[in-house]
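tool=predict chain=A
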Amino acid sequence: MAKMNFYTQNGWAGSNYDSKLQTKDIAAKVRAFAKKNFHEFKFSVTSRWSMYTDSLYIVLKSGLCVPFVEETRSAQRGYIRTMSSVKEWRDEITPKVFAALDGVTSYASSYRYDDSDGMQDYYDTNFFLKIEIADDYKVIEPKAKKQTTKKQEEPETVETSNSVEGLEIVDYSEKAIAVFGETKVIKDQLKELGGKFNPALRHGEGKRAGRIPGKL
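tool=predict ok
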């Protein structure tokens, strides 16, 4: 940044001042800063042309906590409108809201320069800063975190008794069972358990078609 020559004794320029930046560009940077650093609050940041120079409007619209300290003038009035800084309102704004509003407006001021002298009605600045806590400010309840519980899938089992109508279930070996009879009605379930059809399973003293669901 090139060094500025100020006309007044108290002229100053912020650390981020850049003569190439328009006010709308600065507004975009301030919006991004507020969203990143104070995401629990909602800010409106806009630029407007006024009679003498641009103005940057920073309006706090909502947040997770109340904005004003109880029984203060601001709490009774329901809003705050000021310029350049909110530090004079520190005692009337709740701590979290003050930190957010002061942080965002201080960042915006870092893009300003001001070489004005009000005593001489001389004004020279790239933009005026106007700060507000909206009269329709909304306190937003924090979203409850959804608790998701995964249901444990219970493995399907095949009854190991003769209670299933039309089916005969027997212990085929030490590690397997066999199902004989009308297995078509449960073939899908048996397939999921690894069941395979066999036309000549050992059954009693002979052989019979059936399915072995798998190892136990």
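The longest helix spans residues 23-37. The chain has two domains: 12-139, 167-212.
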